[in-house]
């Protein structure tokens, strides 16, 4: 029987065997735009007995994404898990998303040596005032952690994630300069997902967006002049084709969902009205292996509908698929056309 990685590779749009692993559902910050505190009721850390249920199926995977909803560096077993992954899936790309607070130079160097190949720092401002308003902590220590990692990255890549939201649009071009100064490889511009009424009313995604579009264009031009790669979500819904976000997401408890959007229940506003991302598990690692869950009838049927671009519920309203939350290949084409004046 073929490995799970081979089955996934043959099926998904990207042709890559990839899995997202939530090592932590806890965070050390309380960011103003985050839904974790309000809607994610059951918070914990992935324990060794759960990770061990997952580990055998990771052989042959191309990419592992660590840190989906919270701060992975809060898990005290992180380094042990990375060492185990290195034995089972040597050479696998490992991406770690962090708010940067715990990513000290010493710890970052250890994580790099254990196989982390991408470090993504979440920075929603280039000024202390804007950053503290959004994330409630100081920017300077995090920038120092980013700079130290960039100086000692080895073969790892260093990314920055910026979440565009009301009041920080003007921070984007200065953030481009900060990324260039510290040798960041790629800047990703995401849009805040409107979970709360106040965010839905203020989010640039659902305003006319002329100011936001102008500032994104300005940032693109600055980045192009400085040689920084930038990818941005769009400012209006677009057709993205079959979903590129369809890969298993493992919760800290071992629940397996088809993507991060369906990993916990929460409301959101799509510009027309309120919708709900449901919690959509297709199994749990403590009852079945990931390989067994992947071939389950319900999970298989769901994937086939999505990959046929039939948009089963709730995919039709997903803001990720419409390109206005996360950067996609279609969003890159959209901004290329905007910048070209088409």
| Main structural class | alpha/beta
**Order of strands across the biggest sheet?**
7-6-5-4-3-2-1-8-9
Percent range of helical residues: 25-40%
Low-confidence stretches: 203-208
Mean pLDDT equals 88
> How many separate helices?
13
| N-to-C SSE string, H for helix and E for strand | HEHHEHEHEHHEHEHHEEEEEHHH
Fold and architecture overview:
The chain is of the alpha/beta class. The chain contains 13 helices and 11 strands. The chain has helices spanning 4-11, 36-39, 48-54, 78-88, 105-113, 128-135, 140-151, 172-181, 197-202, 210-226, 290-294, 297-307, 329-340; strands at 18-21, 63-66, 93-98, 118-122, 157-164, 186-191, 229-232, 249-250, 256-257, 266-269, 274-277. The strands form 2 sheets. Strands 7-6-5-4-3-2-1-8-9 form a 9-stranded mixed sheet. Strands 10-11 form a two-stranded antiparallel sheet. A hairpin with a 4-residue loop joins strand 10 and strand 11. Helix 8 packs parallel to helix 10 (210-226). The radius of gyration is 19 Å and the shape is globular. It starts with a helix and ends with a helix. The model is unreliable at 203-208 (pLDDT under 50).
């Amino acid at each position: 029987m073929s490995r799970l990685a081979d089955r996934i590779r043959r099926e998904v749009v990207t042709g890559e065997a990839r899995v997202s692993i939530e090592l932590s559902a806890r965070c050390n910050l309380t960011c103003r735009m985050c839904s974790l505190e309000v809607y994610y009721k059951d918070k914990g850390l992935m324990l060794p007995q759960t990770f061990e249920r997952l580990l055998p199926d990771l052989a042959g995977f191309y990419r592992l994404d660590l840190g989906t909803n919270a701060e992975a560096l809060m898990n005290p077993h992180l380094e042990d898990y990375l060492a185990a992954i290195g034995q089972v899936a040597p050479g696998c790309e490992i991406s770690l998303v962090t708010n940067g607070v715990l990513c000290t130079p010493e710890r970052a160097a250890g994580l790099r040596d254990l196989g982390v190949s991408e470090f993504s720092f979440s920075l929603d401002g280039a000024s202390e005032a804007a950053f503290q308003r959004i994330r409630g902590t100081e920017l300077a220590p995090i920038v120092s952690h980013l700079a130290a990692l960039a100086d000692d990255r080895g073969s790892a890549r260093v990314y920055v994630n910026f979440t565009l939201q009301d009041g920080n649009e003007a921070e984007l071009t200065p953030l481009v300069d900060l990324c260039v100064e510290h040798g960041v490889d790629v800047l990703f511009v995401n849009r805040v997902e409107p979970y709360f009424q106040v965010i839905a009313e203020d989010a640039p995604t659902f305003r006319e967006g002329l100011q936001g579009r102008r500032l994104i264009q300005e940032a693109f031009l600055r980045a192009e002049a400085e040689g920084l790669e930038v990818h941005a979500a769009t400012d209006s819904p677009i057709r993205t084709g079959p979903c590129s976000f369809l890969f298993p997401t493992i919760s800290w408890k071992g629940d397996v969902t088809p993507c991060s959007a369906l990993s916990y229940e929460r409301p959101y506003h799509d510009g027309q009205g309120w919708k709900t991302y449901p919690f959509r598990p297709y199994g749990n690692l403590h009852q079945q292996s990931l390989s067994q869950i992947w071939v389950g009838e319900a999970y298989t049927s769901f994937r086939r509908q999505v990959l046929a671009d039939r948009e089963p519920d709730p995919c039709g309203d997903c803001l990720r698929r419409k390109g206005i939350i996360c950067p996609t290949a279609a969003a890159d084409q959209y901004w290329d056309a905007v910048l070209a004046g088409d």
